[in-house]
Automatic annotation (TrEMBL):
Pfam families: Acetyltransf_3
Protein name: RimJ/RimL family protein N-acetyltransferase
Domain spans labelled N-acetyltransferase: 14-153
Domain of life according to the entry: Bacteria
Keywords linked to the UniProt accession: Transferase
Protein backbone atom coordinates (compact mmCIF):
# COMPACT_ATOMS: atom_id res chain seq x y z
CA UNK A 1 0.00 0.00 0.00
CA UNK A 2 1.28 3.48 -0.89
CA UNK A 3 0.02 7.03 -0.52
CA UNK A 4 -0.63 8.73 -3.84
CA UNK A 5 1.64 11.65 -4.72
CA UNK A 6 -0.19 14.97 -4.21
CA UNK A 7 1.59 16.70 -7.08
CA UNK A 8 2.07 20.45 -6.73
CA UNK A 9 0.62 22.09 -3.61
CA UNK A 10 -0.04 25.78 -4.17
CA UNK A 11 -0.62 28.53 -1.63
CA UNK A 12 -0.66 32.31 -1.80
CA UNK A 13 2.88 32.69 -0.42
CA UNK A 14 4.58 29.43 -1.37
CA UNK A 15 4.31 26.69 -3.97
CA UNK A 16 5.55 23.17 -3.25
CA UNK A 17 6.32 21.29 -6.43
CA UNK A 18 7.66 17.75 -6.84
CA UNK A 19 11.46 17.72 -6.52
CA UNK A 20 13.25 17.30 -9.86
CA UNK A 21 16.92 17.27 -10.96
CA UNK A 22 16.46 20.54 -12.86
CA UNK A 23 15.89 22.34 -9.54
CA UNK A 24 19.59 21.87 -8.72
CA UNK A 25 20.89 25.35 -9.52
CA UNK A 26 18.05 27.13 -7.75
CA UNK A 27 18.51 24.95 -4.68
CA UNK A 28 22.24 25.70 -4.64
CA UNK A 29 21.49 29.43 -4.71
CA UNK A 30 18.96 28.97 -1.90
CA UNK A 31 21.28 27.01 0.38
CA UNK A 32 24.02 29.61 -0.10
CA UNK A 33 21.56 32.23 1.17
CA UNK A 34 22.62 32.13 4.81
CA UNK A 35 25.16 29.28 4.40
CA UNK A 36 22.63 26.96 6.01
CA UNK A 37 24.98 23.99 6.15
CA UNK A 38 27.22 25.78 8.69
CA UNK A 39 24.91 25.20 11.67
CA UNK A 40 26.34 22.16 13.43
CA UNK A 41 22.97 20.86 14.71
CA UNK A 42 21.27 20.81 11.29
CA UNK A 43 21.59 18.42 8.36
CA UNK A 44 21.55 20.66 5.29
CA UNK A 45 23.45 19.84 2.07
CA UNK A 46 26.42 21.95 1.06
CA UNK A 47 26.31 23.36 -2.50
CA UNK A 48 28.61 20.64 -3.82
CA UNK A 49 26.41 17.96 -2.19
CA UNK A 50 23.14 19.14 -3.74
CA UNK A 51 23.14 16.72 -6.70
CA UNK A 52 23.65 13.77 -4.36
CA UNK A 53 20.94 15.03 -2.01
CA UNK A 54 18.42 15.40 -4.84
CA UNK A 55 19.30 11.90 -6.03
CA UNK A 56 18.96 10.49 -2.48
CA UNK A 57 15.52 12.00 -1.98
CA UNK A 58 14.28 10.78 -5.36
CA UNK A 59 15.59 7.28 -4.62
CA UNK A 60 13.65 7.32 -1.34
CA UNK A 61 10.58 8.36 -3.30
CA UNK A 62 11.01 5.33 -5.56
CA UNK A 63 11.09 3.15 -2.43
CA UNK A 64 7.86 4.72 -1.17
CA UNK A 65 9.40 6.13 2.04
CA UNK A 66 9.59 9.80 1.05
CA UNK A 67 7.77 12.36 -1.09
CA UNK A 68 10.12 15.33 -1.63
CA UNK A 69 9.25 18.86 -2.70
CA UNK A 70 11.02 22.01 -3.84
CA UNK A 71 9.63 25.21 -2.30
CA UNK A 72 9.22 28.36 -4.38
CA UNK A 73 8.05 31.87 -3.54
CA UNK A 74 4.57 32.07 -5.06
CA UNK A 75 4.98 35.68 -6.21
CA UNK A 76 8.38 35.39 -7.90
CA UNK A 77 8.91 31.66 -8.52
CA UNK A 78 12.29 31.85 -6.77
CA UNK A 79 13.39 28.55 -5.24
CA UNK A 80 13.78 28.94 -1.47
CA UNK A 81 14.26 25.42 -0.12
CA UNK A 82 13.18 21.80 0.26
CA UNK A 83 10.73 19.82 2.37
CA UNK A 84 9.35 16.27 2.40
CA UNK A 85 6.85 13.78 3.62
CA UNK A 86 9.02 11.04 5.11
CA UNK A 87 8.86 7.91 7.29
CA UNK A 88 5.61 7.14 5.51
CA UNK A 89 3.41 4.49 7.16
CA UNK A 90 0.77 4.01 4.51
CA UNK A 91 -1.26 1.38 6.36
CA UNK A 92 -1.98 3.56 9.41
CA UNK A 93 -1.67 6.11 7.64
CA UNK A 94 0.86 8.36 9.36
CA UNK A 95 3.71 10.52 8.05
CA UNK A 96 6.47 12.81 9.21
CA UNK A 97 7.08 16.25 7.71
CA UNK A 98 10.81 16.83 7.75
CA UNK A 99 14.16 17.23 5.99
CA UNK A 100 13.10 20.86 5.61
CA UNK A 101 15.34 23.87 5.08
CA UNK A 102 14.65 27.38 3.78
CA UNK A 103 16.90 30.17 2.53
CA UNK A 104 17.72 32.73 5.22
CA UNK A 105 16.05 35.56 3.31
CA UNK A 106 12.77 33.58 3.19
CA UNK A 107 12.65 32.96 6.93
CA UNK A 108 9.95 35.05 8.61
CA UNK A 109 8.15 35.58 5.30
CA UNK A 110 5.16 33.35 6.08
CA UNK A 111 6.26 30.74 3.56
CA UNK A 112 7.16 28.17 6.24
CA UNK A 113 3.79 28.18 8.06
CA UNK A 114 1.97 28.08 4.72
CA UNK A 115 4.17 25.20 3.57
CA UNK A 116 3.23 23.31 6.74
CA UNK A 117 -0.44 24.18 6.23
CA UNK A 118 -0.39 22.76 2.69
CA UNK A 119 1.35 19.56 3.79
CA UNK A 120 -0.79 19.04 6.89
CA UNK A 121 -4.00 19.74 4.99
CA UNK A 122 -3.21 17.10 2.39
CA UNK A 123 -2.12 14.59 5.03
CA UNK A 124 -5.27 14.95 7.14
CA UNK A 125 -7.92 15.81 4.58
CA UNK A 126 -6.86 13.68 1.60
CA UNK A 127 -4.85 10.82 3.09
CA UNK A 128 -6.87 10.77 6.35
CA UNK A 129 -3.73 10.44 8.48
CA UNK A 130 -4.16 9.67 12.17
CA UNK A 131 -1.21 11.91 13.08
CA UNK A 132 1.64 13.85 11.51
CA UNK A 133 5.08 13.95 13.15
CA UNK A 134 7.84 16.53 13.29
CA UNK A 135 11.33 15.74 14.56
CA UNK A 136 14.34 17.90 15.30
CA UNK A 137 17.67 17.93 17.11
CA UNK A 138 17.40 18.68 20.84
CA UNK A 139 19.94 21.50 20.40
CA UNK A 140 18.00 23.16 17.57
CA UNK A 141 15.99 25.51 19.78
CA UNK A 142 14.88 27.63 16.81
CA UNK A 143 13.35 24.60 15.12
CA UNK A 144 11.73 23.37 18.33
CA UNK A 145 10.12 26.77 18.89
CA UNK A 146 8.93 26.92 15.28
CA UNK A 147 7.34 23.47 15.50
CA UNK A 148 5.58 24.40 18.74
CA UNK A 149 4.24 27.58 17.10
CA UNK A 150 2.61 25.40 14.45
CA UNK A 151 0.47 23.91 17.21
CA UNK A 152 2.26 20.56 17.41
CA UNK A 153 2.67 19.00 20.85
CA UNK A 154 5.88 17.44 22.11
CA UNK A 155 5.63 13.67 22.46
CA UNK A 156 9.05 13.13 23.99
CA UNK A 157 12.80 12.91 23.44
CA UNK A 158 14.52 9.94 21.82
CA UNK A 159 17.84 9.99 23.66
CA UNK A 160 21.04 8.95 21.86
CA UNK A 161 18.82 8.46 18.82
CA UNK A 162 21.16 8.87 15.85
CA UNK A 163 24.69 9.81 14.88
CA UNK A 164 25.00 13.17 13.15
CA UNK A 165 27.96 15.46 12.44
CA UNK A 166 30.27 13.65 14.82
CA UNK A 167 28.01 13.42 17.88
CA UNK A 168 25.14 11.31 19.19
CA UNK A 169 21.96 13.30 18.73
CA UNK A 170 18.91 13.43 20.98
CA UNK A 171 15.79 13.79 18.81
CA UNK A 172 12.73 15.73 20.00
CA UNK A 173 9.47 14.32 18.60
CA UNK A 174 6.34 16.42 18.11
CA UNK A 175 3.02 15.53 16.51
CA UNK A 176 -0.38 16.84 15.48
CA UNK A 177 -3.25 14.36 15.74
CA UNK A 178 -6.31 14.25 13.54
CA UNK A 179 -8.47 15.54 16.41
CA UNK A 180 -6.15 18.53 16.87
CA UNK A 181 -5.96 19.40 13.18
CA UNK A 182 -8.96 21.82 12.98
CA UNK A 183 -7.48 24.04 15.70
CA UNK A 184 -3.98 23.85 14.24
CA UNK A 185 -5.37 24.76 10.83
CA UNK A 186 -7.12 27.87 12.16
CA UNK A 187 -3.94 29.00 13.90
CA UNK A 188 -1.86 28.60 10.75
CA UNK A 189 -4.46 30.37 8.60
CA UNK A 190 -4.43 33.30 11.02
CA UNK A 191 -0.62 33.56 10.85
CA UNK A 192 -0.63 33.45 7.05
CA UNK A 193 -3.41 36.07 6.84
CA UNK A 194 -1.24 38.53 8.77
CA UNK A 195 1.50 38.21 6.17
CA UNK A 196 -0.96 38.76 3.35
CA UNK A 197 -2.72 41.73 4.93
CA UNK A 198 -0.03 43.76 6.70
CA UNK A 199 2.86 45.53 4.90
CA UNK A 200 6.15 44.35 6.35
CA UNK A 201 4.43 41.38 8.02
CA UNK A 202 7.59 39.30 7.59
CA UNK A 203 8.70 40.91 10.85
CA UNK A 204 5.76 39.32 12.69
CA UNK A 205 7.14 35.77 12.46
Amino acid sequence: MTLSHPGTLSGRLVVLEPLAPEHHDGLVDAVRDGELWSLWYTIVPRPEQMSAEIRRRLEQQELGTMIPFTARMAETGRIIGMTTYMNIEAETPRVEIGSTWNAASAQGSGTNPESKLLLLQHAFEVWDCTAVEFRTDFHNHQSRAAIARLGAKQDGVLRAHRRAAGYLRDTVVFSVTQAEWPGVRRGLEHRIARHLAVPGAAQLG
